[in-house]
Amino acid sequence: MASRKNRSGKANRRSPKAPPGLFERLRLRAEPLFAWAAAHRWSAIAAGALLLFIVSVFGGYWIAERFELGDRNRAARDTLDDMKRSGASTPREREPEPKYARLEDLPEFPKYSEAEPGKPRATLDEKPRPKPPQVAAASAEQTWRRNALPFRDLGSRPLIAIVIDDVGLDRPRSRRAWELPGPLTMSFLPYAKDLRDQAKAARARGHELMLHLPMEPNGRNDPGPNALLVSLTDAELRQRTNAALDSFDGYVGANNHMGSRFTAFRPGMETVMRQFKSRGVMFLDSRTTAQSVGDQTAQEMGVPSIVRHVFLDDEETLEAVRRKLAEAEAVARRQGFAVAIGHPHDVTLQALAEWLPTVQGKGLALAPSSAVLRKRNGWE
Ligand SMILES: [Zn+2]
C-alpha cells in the first residue's frame, strides 16, 4: 500500500515540472528563426531558395553518380553470369565478388584472340573458281542487297574491304573503330551487350554491318556462349544459328568467329548455310583454317560468299599491321579486290587511322564487303 501511494505521489509531484517534449523544445529553439523570417520575409525566401538550389545540385550529382556506377557494375555482372550459365568459363567458388567498372577488367572474361600465339596466318590469294552462280543474284530474298552500303564504281579501281571482327565487347575500342573514316565493315558478336544500339551507331557512321558468328576452334580458345560446335545436333545448330541471326538486324551477312574446327565440318556448314540461304544473307569465310569448306559449301548451296585474304593483326605490333596493310594492297592490285580482317586492338586502330586517308591517293578504293561480293561474282 505504502509503495503504491509513494509512486503516485512521486508522479504527481513530477508532472507539473516535466521537461517540455521534443516537439515543444524544437518549437522554442526555432522561435527566433521564425521571428527573423517574419521580419525579413524576402531575405528568408531568397535564403530558402538558395539552400534548395545548392542541395538539389549536389544531391542530383551524388544520385547520378551512384546510378551510373551501379549500372556499370550490373552490366559487368550480368555478362559474367551469362557466361557462367553457358559454361564459357569456370567460376571460382566462394570468392567475394569484386566490383569492376569495365567488362574487360573481369578476370574470368575470356580473351577472344583468334591467332595462336607465334603463328601468324599467311595472306591467301584466291584460287580460280568455276563460273560464279547466278542463282544467288536472282534469288527473291536478298537481305544482303537491302542492307548493303551504296557503292558505285566497282570497275575502275582495285577494291579493299577492311572488316573489323569481334566488335561490341570492348566497347571503348569498338567505338574507336567505327569512328574511323569508312566505309569499313563492323562484325558484331551476337552476345555483345546493347548490340542493337551499338550496331545502329556503327551504321550511322557509314559502315557496313556483319554478324560475327562464333564457331568451334581447334585448340583451347573459347569462342564464347552459344558457339556452333561439331558435337551439336542439326536442330541445335539451326537453333543457335537462328538465334544469332536474330540478335540484331541491318547486317549484310556473317563471318565466322574462330571456327577452325567447325568450318572444316561439312555437314555442320551445310546446316548453317541453309539458314543463310533462307535469310538471303551473305557469308564471309574468315578462313581461320586452310581446311575450311565454308566458301565452297556456300557456293554449292547458292549462298553469296567471299573469303578473307589478309589477317591484319595476328602479330600485334604497329609494324606488322602496316606490313599486312601493304599486303592487302598488293592482293587487291593482283585480283581487283581484297578482304582484310582486323580487330579492335590499339595497334590495328592506330595503323588504320594512318593508312585510311592514303588509300585514294594510291589508286585504290576502300569498299564495303558487299561491293567485294558483287565484284567477285561480276554482279551489278
Ligand atoms: Zn573473331
Q: Strands, helices and their partners?
A:
Blueprint: H1 2-17, H2 22-39, H3 41-85, H4 135-138, H5 143-147, E1 159-167, H6 171-178, E2 185-188, H7 195-204, E3 208-215, H8 234-245, E4 253-258, H9 266-279, E5 282-285, H10 294-300, E6 305-307, E7 310-311, H11 318-335, E8 337-342, H12 346-355, E9 365-366, H13 369-377
Parallel strand pairs: 1-2, 1-8, 1-9, 2-3, 3-4, 4-5, 5-6, 7-8
The structure holds zinc ion (ZN).
Zinc ion binds next to strand 1.
Observed structural traits:
380 residues, alpha/beta, 2 domains, 9-stranded parallel sheet, 13 helices, binds zinc ion
Characterise this structure:
By secondary structure, the protein is α/β, with parallel strands linked by helices. It has 13 helices and nine strands. Helix 11 (318-335) links the parallel strand 7 (310-311) and strand 8 (337-342). The chain is elongated. The termini are far apart. Mean pLDDT is 83; it is low at 1-15 and 86-110. It binds zinc ion.
